Amino acid sequence: MAKLLFIQASPRTIGSQSQKIAEIYLDTLCTQIPKLEVDTLDLRKEDLPAFDGDKVAAKMNLMTGKVHDADQQIAWDRIVEVASRFISADRYLFSVPMWNGGIPYRLKQYIDIIHQPGLTFGLNPESGYIGLLKNKHATLVLTSGAFAQNRPAPAFGVDHHSTYLRSWLNQAGVSAIDELRFQPSLVTPDPAGEFERAKQEAGRLALTHWRALTGSGGKLQ
Ligand SMILES: Cc1cc2nc3c(=O)[nH]c(=O)nc-3n(C[C@H](O)[C@H](O)[C@H](O)COP(=O)(O)O)c2cc1C
Q1: Global pTM?
Q2: Is the pLDDT of residue 199 over 90?
Q3: Minimum-distance ligand 1 atom for the alpha carbon of 186
Q4: Is 12's C-beta closer than 6 angstroms to any atom of ligand 1?
Q5: Which residue, 6, 115, 125, 215, is the most exposed by fewest CB within 10 angstroms?
Q6: 3-state class of 157 per DSSP?
Q7: Is residue 120 in contact with ligand 1, taking CB distance under 6 Å?
Q8: Number of Cβ atoms within 10 Å of the Cβ of 10
Q9: Which residues sit opposite 4 in a β-bridge?
Q10: What is the mean pLDDT of the chain?
């Protein structure tokens, strides 16, 4: 059975709106597909190694064709361990608030650890990056207090949030991406009503995904 990795990026310990919307999506999907294997990665609690020193050196060794020394090999093995959990999933569900125009720092740290040559990407000097992940799907739940796509920029902020996530996923080979947006979550006349609408949309998208999956012979893709 396919595996879905749910990556929770809001550092709020209670009341994360992006996480709530993602949970409704996931609950609906799991109701339809009880055998779906779900792995939850709570970035608030996850013991993420610092990406520095020997880990950076190991990455640069791979980029420049050099051999790891013993400490760099240990550092690289730890990177592979963290990245393998990500690579092993078939589907991704990200709950991600906008932070200062971009993504929360714990998610950026996670991406810096797992996005590695030979694991998620290759680099051809003539043609550029090659995504190594195949047949994956990502659902992004995106929240922001003031920013919205239909609001004037830069007055209400500039989107380095969805654009960054999409370009990173594309570079890793994930091009099938759907979005659920609750934007703006604060600077709007009816935040509670908009939140309800976003939750309903999450349930609808889960059913759309379930139908698409079962429409293809019940095979998750
Ligand atoms: C540190 C921090 C930075 C934020 N930066 C932005 C921002 O740049 N633009 C914006 O529209 N909202 C910003 N917000 C508001 C959140 O994106 C918004 O409240 C969102 O709904 C929170 O989602 P969550 O409940 O899942 O954490 C920021 C909030 C925090 C705590």
Answers
A1: 0.95
A2: yes
A3: 19
A4: yes
A5: 125
A6: coil
A7: no
A8: 24
A9: 38, 91
A10: 95
